[in-house]
Amino acid sequence: MTQSLAVALSGVLLLFLDYAPTNGSSYYVLIEAGEYVGGPECCKYDNPFATASANGIVHGYTANGNTYLIVNGTDVNQVLAQALDTGLDKDSSTDSLDHCGAWLNSVHYDGHVFRGFYHEEWRCDYAKNFYTNKSIAYAESEDGVHFTKPGHPHNVIISAPNTTTGHQTGQGDHGSVVVEDFYYLYYRDWATWRIGLARSPVSSGGKPGTWMKYYNNEFSEPGIRGQSSGIGAGNLTGTAVYRLSTLGALVAVGEGSPTLSFSPDGLRWLRMKMPLIHTDESQWNRTLAKGVFLGLSCVSGSDFRRKRPNQPLLSLLYLPRAT
Q: What are 21-74's pLDDT values in tens digits?
Protein backbone atom coordinates (compact mmCIF):
# COMPACT_ATOMS: atom_id res chain seq x y z
CA MET A 1 0.00 0.00 0.00
CA THR A 2 1.31 3.44 -0.87
CA GLN A 3 1.57 6.17 1.73
CA SER A 4 0.99 9.87 1.22
CA LEU A 5 3.31 12.87 1.42
CA ALA A 6 2.49 16.41 0.41
CA VAL A 7 4.46 19.38 -0.84
CA ALA A 8 3.18 22.93 -0.27
CA LEU A 9 4.43 25.94 -2.22
CA SER A 10 4.53 29.07 -0.05
CA GLY A 11 1.32 28.06 1.67
CA VAL A 12 -0.22 28.34 -1.79
CA LEU A 13 0.16 25.05 -3.65
CA LEU A 14 0.19 21.49 -2.29
CA LEU A 15 1.67 18.68 -4.38
CA PHE A 16 0.62 15.32 -2.98
CA LEU A 17 3.07 12.46 -3.24
CA ASP A 18 2.72 8.73 -2.84
CA TYR A 19 5.67 6.58 -1.87
CA ALA A 20 6.06 2.89 -1.17
CA PRO A 21 8.95 0.53 -0.45
CA THR A 22 9.93 -1.76 -3.32
CA ASN A 23 12.16 -3.92 -1.14
CA GLY A 24 13.99 -3.67 2.15
CA SER A 25 16.17 -0.71 1.14
CA SER A 26 14.47 1.22 -1.66
CA TYR A 27 11.24 3.04 -2.45
CA TYR A 28 9.52 5.06 -5.13
CA VAL A 29 7.73 8.41 -5.08
CA LEU A 30 4.85 9.57 -7.27
CA ILE A 31 3.66 13.18 -7.50
CA GLU A 32 -0.09 13.72 -7.60
CA ALA A 33 -2.05 16.77 -8.72
CA GLY A 34 -1.38 20.05 -6.94
CA GLU A 35 -3.88 21.96 -4.84
CA TYR A 36 -3.86 25.69 -4.09
CA VAL A 37 -4.68 26.59 -0.50
CA GLY A 38 -4.15 30.34 -0.61
CA GLY A 39 -1.96 32.64 1.43
CA PRO A 40 -1.59 36.34 2.22
CA GLU A 41 1.12 38.40 0.60
CA CYS A 42 2.26 41.36 2.64
CA CYS A 43 5.86 40.93 3.61
CA LYS A 44 7.82 39.20 0.82
CA TYR A 45 8.45 36.17 3.00
CA ASP A 46 11.85 34.53 2.71
CA ASN A 47 11.55 31.84 5.38
CA PRO A 48 10.35 28.22 5.55
CA PHE A 49 6.73 27.69 6.60
CA ALA A 50 6.48 26.22 10.11
CA THR A 51 3.48 24.93 12.09
CA ALA A 52 2.65 23.89 15.62
CA SER A 53 -0.64 22.40 16.85
CA ALA A 54 -2.24 22.60 20.27
CA ASN A 55 -5.76 21.85 21.47
CA GLY A 56 -7.07 21.36 17.94
CA ILE A 57 -5.68 24.66 16.63
CA VAL A 58 -2.96 24.89 13.98
CA HIS A 59 -0.61 27.87 14.11
CA GLY A 60 1.40 28.57 10.93
CA TYR A 61 4.35 30.92 10.70
CA THR A 62 6.70 32.49 8.18
CA ALA A 63 8.96 35.53 8.26
CA ASN A 64 11.03 38.20 6.62
CA GLY A 65 13.17 39.80 9.31
CA ASN A 66 10.13 39.64 11.63
CA THR A 67 8.08 36.48 12.24
CA TYR A 68 4.40 36.47 11.31
CA LEU A 69 1.46 34.22 12.11
CA ILE A 70 -0.32 33.51 8.81
CA VAL A 71 -2.44 30.46 9.72
CA ASN A 72 -4.63 30.13 12.80
CA GLY A 73 -7.46 27.59 12.82
CA THR A 74 -8.36 23.93 12.60
CA ASP A 75 -6.00 23.26 9.66
CA VAL A 76 -3.58 25.04 7.32
CA ASN A 77 -6.45 26.24 5.14
CA GLN A 78 -7.37 28.72 7.88
CA VAL A 79 -5.25 31.51 6.43
CA LEU A 80 -5.53 34.87 8.16
CA ALA A 81 -6.82 37.76 6.09
CA GLN A 82 -3.86 39.77 7.39
CA ALA A 83 -0.58 38.45 8.72
CA LEU A 84 -0.10 38.99 12.46
CA ASP A 85 3.24 40.08 13.89
CA THR A 86 4.13 37.60 16.65
CA GLY A 87 6.46 39.95 18.52
CA LEU A 88 9.41 37.84 17.41
CA ASP A 89 11.08 40.74 15.62
CA LYS A 90 14.49 42.17 14.78
CA ASP A 91 16.03 44.00 17.74
CA SER A 92 16.84 47.69 17.58
CA SER A 93 20.28 47.33 19.21
CA THR A 94 23.14 46.90 16.76
CA ASP A 95 24.87 44.71 19.35
CA SER A 96 22.06 42.12 19.36
CA LEU A 97 22.55 38.93 17.39
CA ASP A 98 19.02 39.38 16.00
CA HIS A 99 19.49 43.02 15.00
CA CYS A 100 18.98 42.11 11.32
CA GLY A 101 16.10 39.74 11.91
CA ALA A 102 14.39 36.89 13.78
CA TRP A 103 13.02 34.10 11.59
CA LEU A 104 11.09 31.34 13.38
CA ASN A 105 12.23 28.17 11.58
CA SER A 106 10.86 25.55 13.97
CA VAL A 107 8.52 25.36 16.95
CA HIS A 108 7.40 22.53 19.26
CA TYR A 109 4.47 22.42 21.66
CA ASP A 110 5.29 20.40 24.79
CA GLY A 111 1.80 20.40 26.27
CA HIS A 112 2.33 23.64 28.14
CA VAL A 113 4.62 25.98 26.19
CA PHE A 114 5.46 26.57 22.54
CA ARG A 115 9.26 26.22 22.26
CA GLY A 116 10.61 28.18 19.30
CA PHE A 117 14.08 28.01 17.75
CA TYR A 118 14.65 31.00 15.50
CA HIS A 119 17.29 31.94 12.95
CA GLU A 120 18.89 35.32 13.69
CA GLU A 121 21.35 37.61 11.91
CA TRP A 122 23.47 40.62 12.82
CA ARG A 123 26.07 42.98 11.32
CA CYS A 124 24.48 42.34 7.93
CA ASP A 125 25.34 44.09 4.68
CA TYR A 126 23.36 42.17 2.08
CA ALA A 127 24.54 44.41 -0.76
CA LYS A 128 28.08 43.08 -0.26
CA ASN A 129 27.88 39.44 -1.35
CA PHE A 130 24.92 38.87 1.04
CA TYR A 131 27.25 39.39 4.01
CA THR A 132 25.67 38.54 7.38
CA ASN A 133 26.40 36.66 10.62
CA LYS A 134 24.00 33.82 11.46
CA SER A 135 23.12 32.03 14.69
CA ILE A 136 20.09 30.37 16.35
CA ALA A 137 18.21 31.53 19.45
CA TYR A 138 15.39 30.46 21.78
CA ALA A 139 11.89 31.95 22.07
CA GLU A 140 8.67 30.79 23.71
CA SER A 141 4.95 31.42 23.75
CA GLU A 142 2.01 30.42 25.93
CA ASP A 143 -0.61 30.76 23.19
CA GLY A 144 1.33 30.10 19.97
CA VAL A 145 0.55 33.63 18.79
CA HIS A 146 2.66 36.01 20.89
CA PHE A 147 6.32 35.12 21.45
CA THR A 148 8.95 36.39 23.86
CA LYS A 149 12.74 35.97 23.97
CA PRO A 150 13.57 34.96 27.56
CA GLY A 151 16.98 36.23 28.64
CA HIS A 152 17.49 38.29 25.49
CA PRO A 153 20.10 39.14 24.27
CA HIS A 154 21.61 36.06 25.90
CA ASN A 155 19.12 33.60 24.43
CA VAL A 156 21.40 32.19 21.72
CA ILE A 157 21.54 28.39 21.56
CA ILE A 158 23.76 27.75 18.50
CA SER A 159 26.63 29.92 17.26
CA ALA A 160 29.80 29.36 15.25
CA PRO A 161 33.35 29.49 16.65
CA ASN A 162 34.24 32.34 14.27
CA THR A 163 31.98 35.00 12.74
CA THR A 164 34.52 37.50 11.43
CA THR A 165 34.74 36.71 7.70
CA GLY A 166 33.60 39.00 4.89
CA HIS A 167 30.80 36.82 3.49
CA GLN A 168 27.81 34.87 4.80
CA THR A 169 29.05 33.22 7.96
CA GLY A 170 27.87 31.57 11.13
CA GLN A 171 25.42 28.71 11.70
CA GLY A 172 21.68 28.83 11.05
CA ASP A 173 18.98 28.08 8.44
CA HIS A 174 17.89 25.17 10.57
CA GLY A 175 15.14 22.65 11.20
CA SER A 176 14.41 20.52 14.25
CA VAL A 177 12.69 17.29 15.20
CA VAL A 178 12.15 15.23 18.36
CA VAL A 179 14.23 12.02 18.44
CA GLU A 180 13.44 9.92 21.51
CA ASP A 181 14.15 12.20 24.50
CA PHE A 182 15.99 14.93 22.57
CA TYR A 183 15.40 17.84 20.25
CA TYR A 184 17.63 17.28 17.22
CA LEU A 185 18.47 20.54 15.45
CA TYR A 186 20.03 20.45 11.97
CA TYR A 187 21.72 23.65 10.81
CA ARG A 188 23.82 24.95 7.93
CA ASP A 189 27.45 25.75 8.78
CA TRP A 190 28.25 28.61 6.44
CA ALA A 191 32.02 28.26 6.88
CA THR A 192 32.00 24.77 5.36
CA TRP A 193 28.51 24.52 3.74
CA ARG A 194 28.10 21.27 5.69
CA ILE A 195 25.02 20.41 7.71
CA GLY A 196 25.70 20.20 11.44
CA LEU A 197 23.66 18.66 14.24
CA ALA A 198 23.04 19.66 17.86
CA ARG A 199 20.75 18.17 20.47
CA SER A 200 19.10 19.20 23.73
CA PRO A 201 17.00 17.15 26.17
CA VAL A 202 13.28 17.69 25.65
CA SER A 203 13.03 17.95 29.43
CA SER A 204 15.19 21.10 29.28
CA GLY A 205 12.81 22.83 26.87
CA GLY A 206 15.68 23.45 24.45
CA LYS A 207 16.75 26.50 26.42
CA PRO A 208 20.17 28.19 26.14
CA GLY A 209 23.04 26.24 27.66
CA THR A 210 21.43 22.83 27.15
CA TRP A 211 22.63 22.16 23.57
CA MET A 212 25.57 19.99 22.51
CA LYS A 213 26.96 19.80 18.97
CA TYR A 214 27.86 16.58 17.19
CA TYR A 215 31.65 16.52 16.74
CA ASN A 216 33.99 13.61 15.99
CA ASN A 217 31.20 11.03 16.25
CA GLU A 218 29.73 12.18 19.56
CA PHE A 219 27.76 15.05 21.08
CA SER A 220 30.77 16.62 22.74
CA GLU A 221 30.89 20.35 21.90
CA PRO A 222 28.77 23.17 23.39
CA GLY A 223 26.11 24.74 21.22
CA ILE A 224 27.60 28.20 21.67
CA ARG A 225 30.89 28.59 19.75
CA GLY A 226 31.56 24.85 19.80
CA GLN A 227 33.14 22.86 16.97
CA SER A 228 30.95 20.69 14.75
CA SER A 229 31.28 17.88 12.22
CA GLY A 230 29.24 17.41 9.09
CA ILE A 231 26.33 14.94 9.23
CA GLY A 232 25.22 12.45 6.60
CA ALA A 233 28.38 12.09 4.49
CA GLY A 234 26.77 14.07 1.67
CA ASN A 235 23.53 12.06 1.78
CA LEU A 236 21.60 14.50 3.98
CA THR A 237 20.04 16.88 1.48
CA GLY A 238 18.77 19.63 3.79
CA THR A 239 17.98 20.82 7.29
CA ALA A 240 14.18 20.43 7.02
CA VAL A 241 13.67 17.18 8.96
CA TYR A 242 10.48 15.42 10.04
CA ARG A 243 9.67 12.13 11.80
CA LEU A 244 7.86 9.75 9.45
CA SER A 245 5.99 7.63 11.98
CA THR A 246 4.69 5.11 9.47
CA LEU A 247 8.24 4.12 8.51
CA GLY A 248 9.80 4.66 11.93
CA ALA A 249 12.36 6.94 10.29
CA LEU A 250 13.27 10.57 9.68
CA VAL A 251 12.78 12.28 6.35
CA ALA A 252 14.65 15.40 5.18
CA VAL A 253 14.24 17.55 2.10
CA GLY A 254 16.98 19.59 0.45
CA GLU A 255 17.26 22.96 -1.25
CA GLY A 256 17.34 23.64 -4.98
CA SER A 257 15.39 20.93 -6.78
CA PRO A 258 13.98 19.28 -3.63
CA THR A 259 15.41 15.84 -2.92
CA LEU A 260 14.48 13.53 -0.05
CA SER A 261 16.79 11.79 2.42
CA PHE A 262 15.81 9.12 4.97
CA SER A 263 17.44 8.11 8.25
CA PRO A 264 16.74 5.51 10.95
CA ASP A 265 18.47 7.46 13.73
CA GLY A 266 19.18 11.03 12.60
CA LEU A 267 22.88 10.31 12.02
CA ARG A 268 23.00 7.91 9.06
CA TRP A 269 21.24 9.08 5.91
CA LEU A 270 20.17 7.60 2.56
CA ARG A 271 19.57 9.99 -0.33
CA MET A 272 17.10 9.63 -3.18
CA LYS A 273 18.73 9.53 -6.60
CA MET A 274 16.24 11.92 -8.21
CA PRO A 275 14.61 15.15 -6.99
CA LEU A 276 10.89 15.30 -6.31
CA ILE A 277 10.41 18.14 -8.79
CA HIS A 278 12.82 20.19 -10.88
CA THR A 279 13.14 23.85 -9.94
CA ASP A 280 15.55 26.66 -10.69
CA GLU A 281 18.77 25.84 -8.81
CA SER A 282 19.74 29.51 -8.64
CA GLN A 283 17.94 30.84 -5.59
CA TRP A 284 16.98 34.51 -5.20
CA ASN A 285 17.49 35.07 -8.94
CA ARG A 286 14.01 36.35 -9.75
CA THR A 287 13.42 37.85 -13.20
CA LEU A 288 10.44 39.24 -15.09
CA ALA A 289 9.97 35.77 -16.58
CA LYS A 290 10.29 33.45 -13.60
CA GLY A 291 10.10 33.16 -9.84
CA VAL A 292 12.18 30.97 -7.54
CA PHE A 293 11.57 28.23 -5.02
CA LEU A 294 13.30 28.23 -1.63
CA GLY A 295 12.69 27.81 2.08
CA LEU A 296 11.87 24.12 2.38
CA SER A 297 10.28 22.74 5.54
CA CYS A 298 8.33 19.77 6.85
CA VAL A 299 5.04 20.14 8.72
CA SER A 300 2.49 17.68 10.03
CA GLY A 301 0.03 16.14 7.61
CA SER A 302 -2.53 16.16 10.41
CA ASP A 303 -2.43 19.95 10.22
CA PHE A 304 -3.95 19.62 6.76
CA ARG A 305 -6.52 17.04 7.93
CA ARG A 306 -5.95 14.63 5.06
CA LYS A 307 -7.21 11.05 4.96
CA ARG A 308 -3.77 9.91 6.07
CA PRO A 309 -2.84 12.48 8.72
CA ASN A 310 0.35 10.73 9.88
CA GLN A 311 2.21 11.74 6.73
CA PRO A 312 4.30 14.94 6.64
CA LEU A 313 3.60 17.94 4.50
CA LEU A 314 6.71 19.12 2.67
CA SER A 315 6.53 22.83 1.94
CA LEU A 316 8.42 25.11 -0.42
CA LEU A 317 8.27 28.88 -0.39
CA TYR A 318 7.63 30.33 -3.83
CA LEU A 319 8.66 33.88 -4.69
CA PRO A 320 6.68 35.10 -7.72
CA ARG A 321 8.43 36.56 -10.73
CA ALA A 322 9.71 40.12 -10.39
CA THR A 323 7.36 42.92 -11.32
A: 555 545 555 555 555 444 545 667 788 888 899 998 999 898 889 999 988 998
Residue 10 has pLDDT above 70, yes or no: no
- Three-state SS for the chain is CCEEEEEEECCCEEEEEEEEECCCCCEEEEEEEEEECCCCCCCCCCCCCEEEEECCEEEEEEEECEEEEEEEECCCCCEEEEEEECCCCCCCCCCCCCCCEEEEEEEEECCCCEEEEEEEEEEEECCCCCEEEEEEEEEEECCCCCCECCCCCCCEEEECCCCCCCCCEEEEEEEEEEECCEEEEEEEECCCCEEEEEEEEHHHCCCCCCCEEEECCEEEEECECCCCCCCCCCCCCCCEEEEECCCCEEEEECCCCCCEEEECCCCCCEECCCCCCCCCCCCCCCCCCCCEEEEEEEEEHHHHCCCCCCCEEEEEEEECCCC
